[in-house]
Amino acid sequence: MKHIKLGVFIFLLSVGTISAQVPNGYNLWLNYSPQPNSTILKEYQKVSTSVYFQNESDVLNVSREELKRGLKGMLGVDVLFSDAISKSNTLIIATNNNLHQDIQNTLETNYKSIGDEGFIIKSIQFKGKQIIVISANQDVGILYGVFRFLRLLQMETDLSTIHIIDSPKLDLRMLNHWDNLDRTVERGYAGFSLWNWQKLPDFIDQRYIDYARANASIGINGAVLNNVNASALILTPMYLEKVAALANVFRPYGIKVYLTARFSAPIEIGGLDTADPLNKEVQNWWNTMANNIYKAIPDFGGFLVKANSEGQPGPQNYNRTHVDGANMLAKALKPHNGVVIWRSFVYSEHDVTDRAKQAYSEFVPFDGKFMDNVLVQSKNGPIDFQPREPFHPMFGAMPNTNLMMEFQITQEYLGFSTHLVFLPKLFEEVLKADTYAEGKGTTVAKVIDGSITKPKLTGIAGVSNIGNDINWTGHPFAQANWYGFGRLAWNPHLSSETIAEEWLRATYSINSKFIEPVKNMMLNSREAVVNYMNPLGLHHLFDTNHHYGPGPWVSNLSRPEWNPTYYHKADENGIGFNRSSTGSNAVEQYANEVAHVFNIVETCPEEYLLWFHHVPWDYKLKNGESLWNGLALKYQEGVNQVSQMITTWNAVKPYISEAEYKEVDMLLNIQLKEAKWWKDASLLYFQTFSKQPFPKDIEKPEKSLEYYKSLKFPFAPGIRPHWD
Ligand code: GCV
Q1: Whole-number mean pLDDT of the chain?
Q2: Starting from the edge strand earliest in sequence, which strands make up the sheet with 91-95, in order?
Q3: Sign of CA dihedral 185, 191, 194, 200
Q4: Residues 383-408: pLDDT tens digits?
Q5: Percentage of the chain modeled with pLDDT above 90
Q6: For residue 599, which phi and psi values (nearest 5 degrees)?
Q7: Mean pLDDT of 29-42
Q8: Strands 574-575 and 615-616
Q9: Which ligand 1 atom minimizes the distance to the CA of 309?
Q10: For the residues 534-542, what does the mean pLDDT come to?
Q11: Would you tell me the crossing angle of helices 206-218 and 237-250 to the nearest 10 degrees?
Q12: Coil, strand, or helix at residue 132?
């Protein structure tokens, strides 16, 4: 504060009513904090002296309001809007058909290349002076352009020569809410569902609007409102009226609503005695359902379906296929331009080979058979959103299908909303993975953005981490995961480092003494959680049902593939799941180049070692340690990394408020406690097989294995509580 000039200081005071309050995180990355540098401030103020903002639709209205809010917050200016484009304008914001031909000529933009959602931001000479133009083909492009412009100010970008042409790389950029109608959220750790079904449609919570603003700011354009473990009731008239009310709120922000469709809905709410997709009555029922939905919500996005997965009904109940089921729904939605998103997350207790192989085995033979308004949505890895998984072999293996990505933003397997884990690092690792499907360089990002196979539709979904906690996501740093997902949905080729930097600047502080160490902390946080939970390719070692804490010993669940012992297969000889050609041969689902590397224990990257191989305890790792020692040291490394995060956070205390400091400090200390719990419980258990002492750098376990095994959490969040 002491270096700030007087004028700026007065400005800070004048706009300081928001920033003077205890920060509660509600504003997310849309804080629009005052610009403290007086030179930059003056520059920016000059640009916003006189603004022409085309203003004739709901989308443009909300964009204009956002611009006003942002400029007021950051620059302290009440924007002067002019009614027509004039010489005095310093900023012109309009779609191309509303721009004078001479401005269009000066922009020299190929509007075709930016599509419906893209935009241009360019500094040009107009009537003898330098001005900035934000333009697009459609109103929604203006919306995204305005949010980008505000981000440029948050990033302190030099605007004098600015020239940005950008458009999203994927068509569908969606949040999947696993929200139930009773407002519990499956795998939700940030309170209850945002959607207050009881008060809808008449009561519109300000949160719905702020949710839409936040999503629009990062380009998310679709929201599935309800859980994939669906209740058919959402499709009844009473609920559709409520859904329509939310759709009305989201529309100006470029967001479409989607619903999950329970496959057996024709029976449950339609009075039919079958849901067989080849039955005429069933087909008619879905056609009528689609017609009714579109009457209420003309821009309804479509259905997301979890079928024949974890007990959910589906076409296989009638000896039909995924294609039969998906195409039946797709036909019903087609006349309305709706889509069906059909999940590939399937596995069966009757398939004794290997759960990791099943989605591929069930879906890849159907490549090319789905209608063109069907997208098959596949999780990033072949098991289930683990701290680390190799990429799903379906990516690259279905070139004739609209294949979309599903990431999990909520931290079901990564410490709930207590652990600081920056997920864009995980997302980036998956997106950059080379499938070799069409030769070297066929990254997962290129598969899903359609740049290689040119599918009709492309998309990406993130399972939301949002609830009604005041800061939306529970952990303040979990906001960065929502933000980062959105940024990667817009452009899956972005780097996680860029995203971390953007988010920190917009959310906390623009001081590089704060940003640099905290950015590093974020970037290392994902590896830390892998180390203290599931190092060297271990996976699914979580305690039953709630997935809170370790349960590697669990072996008594009814379905074999629900037991952690199924995944680690520890015995006196070693540990790991043999998925090589001498085992389940899951490796063969990858392109040859990838399969070959994973298949051989010496070439398999060590981060996937125990995913693909059962390895003897005395196997020598690349660093010369035995597997047992190396595994133990990895667990310890994870714990040490969390201690380091605490040290980093303490060091940046001077740059943030006491409340901001304290909140994260408390959470990091819980994370440390839980990291130690993971290390101690896992190592004590695996030691019963390795029968070897801990290497000398391992901190002594705090409790006994029996103690860790005895822990029970019937009221852990994210599940409907019950006593076992
Ligand atoms: C919505 C995992 C989770 C379930 C989730 C399922 C899915 O199994 O534990 O809660 O169900 O994935 O993605 O359908």
Answers
A1: 95
A2: 81-82, 51-53, 91-95, 129-136, 119-126, 163-166
A3: positive
A4: 999 999 999 999 999 999 999 999 99
A5: 92
A6: -70, -30
A7: 96
A8: antiparallel
A9: 14
A10: 98
A11: 60
A12: strand
Q: How far is the CA of 646 from the centre of ligand 1 (A)?
A: 32
Torsion, Cα 289 291 293 298, to 10 degrees, reads 160
Q: Taking every pair of C-alpha atoms in the chain, what is the biggest distance, in angstroms? A: 82
- Residue 715 C-alpha to ligand 1 middle, in angstroms? 18
Whole-number Å distance, alpha carbon 346 to ligand 1 midpoint, is 10
Report how far ligand 1's centroid is from the alpha carbon of 340 (Å). Answer: 19
Residue ID of nearest Cα to ligand 1 atom 13:
345
Q: What is the rounded radius of gyration, in angstroms, for the C-alpha atoms of the chain? A: 26
Distance from residue 703's CA to the centre of ligand 1 (Å) = 31
What is the reported pLDDT for 110?
84
Judged against a pLDDT cut of 90, whether residue 425 lies above it is answered with yes
CA of 68 to the centre of ligand 1 (A): 41
Residue written as tokens 């458009």?
A: 167
| Per-residue pLDDT tens over the stretch 225-278 | 999 999 999 999 999 999 999 999 999 999 999 999 999 999 999 999 999 999
Band of residue 349 on the pLDDT scale cut at 50, 70, 90: confident
Q: How far apart are CA 311 and CA 298, in angstroms?
A: 32
Q: Which residues of 53-82 are buried (b: 16+ CB within 10 A; e: fewer)?
A: bbeeeebbebbbebbbebbbbbbbbebebe
- Nearest atom in ligand 1 to 178's CA: 1
Q: Is the pLDDT of residue 22 over 70?
A: no
Q: What tokens appear for 124 in the block?
A: 């040009």
Q: Which ligand 1 atom is nearest residue 306's CA?
A: 14
Query: Catalytic positions, please?
Result: 310, 384, 412
Residue 676 C-alpha from the chain's centroid: 27
Residues lining ligand 1, Cβ inside 6 A: 178, 186-187, 228-229, 306, 310, 345, 384, 412
| Cα 179 from Cα 185, distance rounded (Å) | 4
Q: Which residues pair with 130 in a beta bridge?
A: 125
Mutation choice for ligand 1 from 189, 226, 231, 310, CB with most ligand atoms inside 8 A: 310
Atom of ligand 1 minimally distant from the CA of 408? 13
**Residue identifier of the C-alpha nearest atom 12 of ligand 1:** 384
Helix 237-250 with 280-296: angle, nearest 10 deg: 40
The best mutation among 384, 407, 413, 559 to test binding of ligand 1, ranked by most ligand atoms within 8 Å of the C-beta, falls on 384
